[in-house]
Amino acid sequence: MILVLAHDCSQTQLDEILSECKSLGWTCEVSRGTEQTIVTLAGSADPAALEERFGKRTDLDLVPILSHREYRYLRTRRRMLAGMAGGLGVLTAMGAGIPVLGFLMPPKGVIPDRDLVRVAAQAEIKEHSGWRVTLLGQPVLLVRLENNRWFALSAICTHMNICHLDWNEERRELVCPCHGGAFDVYGNVVQGPPAVPLESYGVELVGPDVFVRRKA
User: Fold this and answer.
1) Lowest-confidence range among 2-16, 19-33, 73-87, 157-171?
2) For the chain, how many structural domains are there in total?
3) 188 and 160 share a domain?
4) Burial 52-81 (b: 16+ CB within 10 A, else e)
């Protein structure tokens, strides 16, 4: 989840919002740009409680990084895997772990979702760096940040589509070499002249590899 505020919001207002988020169990990271202030939320707290707390406020926008459907799917999947992991520990002690693992895991090299496209190996991309790939014939920047966070965004500047963006590790932004425009890792414009955000793609890690979800 991210919170989007005005670029000139007061520090008092920002501190109040951060305090409320932390009280709900979120950790917060603030990024101030020339057009808006972004608060990135991380953790396993309940998004519904966050939406209830901030949904009616007019001084900020609450933007889910995942749709509710995707979020429910991921939460269910994580709980199921956690439960199976506990069960597998017992089965392993009984000498039945290996056959069960072979049943649960797909065959090597088989990706269960055809919408996923392999773009790189995790080991190829160091932390805080960007990696240019091609997805469906279009240039895409794959970015890896700390805590194994991955982002994939169109590398075509929305100000002028003949300009391709570069990753600036020091600024942690996607920067246009043509006119100086810049975007954060969520695709938001942080420096003009671009006025339209970048298209982003879902990233999933499967074993040692990085996959990007193609657009429907």
Assistant:
1) 73-87
2) 3
3) yes
4) eebeeeeebebeebeeeeeeeeeeeeeeee
